[in-house]
Design a protein that fits this description.
It is built from 24 helices and twelve strands. By secondary structure, it is α+β, with helices and mostly antiparallel strands. The protein has two domains: 359 residues, no CATH class; 77 residues, Immunoglobulin-like, CATH 2.60.40. A hairpin with a 6-residue loop joins strand 1 and strand 2. It starts with a helix and ends with a helix.
Length: 602
Amino acid sequence: MIFKKQFLSSTKPHILPLALCIALNLFFISPILKPFIHSGHSALLDLARSVIVHQSINEGKLWPDWAPVLYFGYGSPIFTFYSPFSYLIIEGLWRLGFGIVWSTNLLYLFALLMITTCCYFSGNKLFGLKGGMIAGCTAALSPYVLTDLYIRAGIAEFFAIGLFCLTLYLFIKMAFNDRIYLTIFAALSFAAIICSHNITGLLAAGAFIFFSFFQSNRKAFFRILVSIILGIALAAFFWLPALVEKDLVHSTESLTSGDYHFSNHFVTLDKLFIPKIFIEPPAINKSRSPRVDIGLPHMLGFLSFIILMIKGKWKPNSGLKRISIWLGLLAVFSILFMTGLTERIWNLIPLLTFIQFPWRLNILAMPALSILCGSIPVLVNQFTQDRKWPIIASFSVILISVITIFPDRFPGYSFFHNDSNLNPVMIPQNLLFQATTSNLVVPAQNAVTIDTIRKHGITTTAKDDYLPKWVSLESKPLKEPDKLAEIRDNPEIPIEWSDMGIFAEFRFSCPEACDLRIFKFYFPGWKASEGQEEITISPEPKSGIMSIHLEPGSHNIQLEYTNDVPIRKFARILSIISLGFIIALCMFDVAKTIRKANRMGK
């Protein structure tokens, strides 16, 4: 009963401000809460990947790594490098009966709610209820969040941003609370960031290591550092093979060269500080170009924080002051790295080139600046004893956020022309009814199936990032093969075969030594065997397909894609050790809680 009263008394003050944040969330995300995939740069690729993951689960592969239907059925190791974690969550919701569209849209909603609520509670910790309300609202209505939601439409990155805000809140709590469960949850949340989106994981690692040095005592520093190390180790099964094997695909040159080189995407000061609505009047963003400005309310929030630190009478404890300074420095460094002023540093650190777009550092700047927006009512309160002015200031900032972001709230929806060419078309919101009653177009979720992915040769990304290196870009296939395998120099020999994506079997006889050509791309992990004997697989030059040299006679060859590769084995062991340590911490925390309860009972 006492616990219930304490819970209600601590929760009641948050109901109205948090309800306002969530209401704004629902209003701004409502256009995508429809039974259609909204249009965006990555929307159709995400749809195809979700369909592939669904098929892999049906085939018994709980963590997909090979996508067998990409490139006309030749396959790709895309999920070794681009984690399927967010698609697995979509798959879980799909299995619960929501369908692929609503599963995707609900994950967007969940991520946005994470961004809002976690920034709200972080802002509340530093600046009180009004500060939390502004932090939650300005985070949800920040230009980059709405850009990632409606223009870029990348579910993996968007979900990772939500997880970043969650992990940030947990770390802020850990600075003042030594409960072990926070260490565990922070480690799990950080590992989830890494397993959701590589680039966000890289940025988050740097930000959180930086955060650990701003603690007011050694115990807090140690707790946070343990969480970071555990999170990195827990996610090692994904990031370590991806890092070590990155040169086995075309990712290095395709992700970091040409138009995707970071030097082509530095942000000029006018685009960074002047809201797009003042440069490009509302045209419902016909260009669909990302918004890279940091947001007018966020600039006001940062200015307010600087004035409060220099001139104000704000006297937080040492820990809160250190965290707020860290947030300010994180925002400053993130903004600086978006500009060409830091080009030399980008050139010195090889991993930074994989970020591709410097404006992606808004992932770090957005929550930091949103939380600092909470300083506005605190600053106003320094100059007046009238309690209404901090409230007026809070709602004014939220209103500015709504006005400056409103034009980006109108998405299009992904459809395809109802013909055999599978050409996509974006249907604007005002034409949605006509599209659904017409026979000229079909919704994307009806057009993108395993068969159409294979038939139309859908690839990993726009630039073949995860095409195995043995495949020349000039020699990649242009159509689906009419058979799975043939004998080199004697293709007339009949071959009986069965294909289950990551497993295949071939039965045939050859009168003399021969080479079996299998129309699947080679990549480490493919294993061929006959009986108990393992057979060597070689990639063919340029085409990159698998070739197996065999002696004369009858053969029954089994082919399977496995994770039986040294670096992947080592990474899995590292993750298992980390998981074991986390379980041990859980048991220790439970035992400690039970002992404490027993002492209080006595």
